[in-house]
Amino acid sequence: MDPTRPILDAVAGLALGLPVEVVERVAGVISACDPGEIRRRVADAVPHAHHRGLALRFVDGWLAGSPGVSPAEVAIALRTAAHLGRQRGREPSVEMAWTGPHVEAVPYRHTEQAILQVLDSARTRLLLVSYAVYAIGNVRDAVVRAARRRVEIGVVVETPDRIEGHGTYDTLGALGAEVAGCSMVYCWPIERRLRDDIGRPGSLHVKCAVADGRWLFLSSANLTEYAFTINMELGLLVTGGNLPGQVEAHFDRLIESGILVKA
């Protein structure tokens, strides 16, 4: 067997498990210090506990299992893996998201699974938009988890307290006190909407979630139990590329221009 295979596998595993910038930071530490100092220096350089654990496990495995591979070689391998990760990040990955009858023809992500991936991926910014909000369960919990990670959260709803054809409905109440308390909640005021020939206003009918300008979930599904269980719903989960950032920036402009206002 190729003696470098174990360390190459370990490098690939670390690159998949850590953000690109953390992999680059670990590579920089490894290339800049004596072997006896590497473990301590890596621990100091990676503040996030989970990331630090992965990095130290990599260092321990390398030093114990592949001591013949030099720090310079490991650093080059890590930087190469990080570079490839950045290149992959520029190319969008698009997956189908689906709720409904199961068929074997094409692979897909379940609607709830796809939106939870976006919510749990957020590290700095999160935008959640939905027309109807009834029973969001796991989604509500994911938004609260994001808030605890100090993610900046924006939630856009049709109206705080009314959905056309449904009478009075407490949308903010459906979000839950924790979500409403940790988010900036916006709506599209009735008086600022386009209207048809007989004066009926348009609706905020968008359903999407965007995280860090990198992950985008776009779907027909509202934040309802039916949308996640028995409806037929179709959407897309987009990772990387320009589209998530474009959607995020578009909603930023809607807020800055006063089209969307605080609820």
Any overview of this molecule?
With 263 residues, the protein is an alpha/beta fold. The protein folds into 2 domains: 5-90, no CATH class; 93-262, Endonuclease Chain A (Endonuclease, Chain A, 2-Layer Sandwich), CATH 3.30.870. It is 47% helix and 16% strand. The protein is built from 11 helices and 9 strands. A hairpin with a 3-residue loop joins strand 6 and strand 7. Helix 1 (5-17) packs across helix 5, helix 2 packs antiparallel against helix 3 (38-45) and helix 3 (38-45) runs antiparallel to helix 4 (49-65). The radius of gyration is 23 Å and the shape is elongated. The N and C termini lie far apart (63 Å). Residues 163-169 have low confidence and may be disordered.
Helical content, roughly?
40-55%
Main sheet makeup: 9 strands, mixed
Rg is: 23 Å
> How many H/I helical runs?
11
Q: How many strand elements?
A: 9
Strand content: 15-25%
CATH class division of the largest domain: Alpha Beta
Shape: elongated
Poorly predicted regions are 163-169
- Structural class from helices and strands? alpha/beta
Strands in their spatial order, largest beta sheet: 2-1-8-7-6-3-4-5-9
Head-to-tail CA distance between termini: 63 Å
Number of domains: 2
Question: Architecture of the largest domain, CATH level 2?
Answer: 2-Layer Sandwich
SSE string: HHHHHEEHEHEHHEEEHEHE
CATH topology of the largest domain: Endonuclease, Chain A
Average of per-residue pLDDT values? 86
Task: Determine the CATH superfamily of the largest domain.
Answer: Endonuclease Chain A
Protein name: Phospholipase D-like domain-containing protein
Domain Phospholipase D-like: 115-254
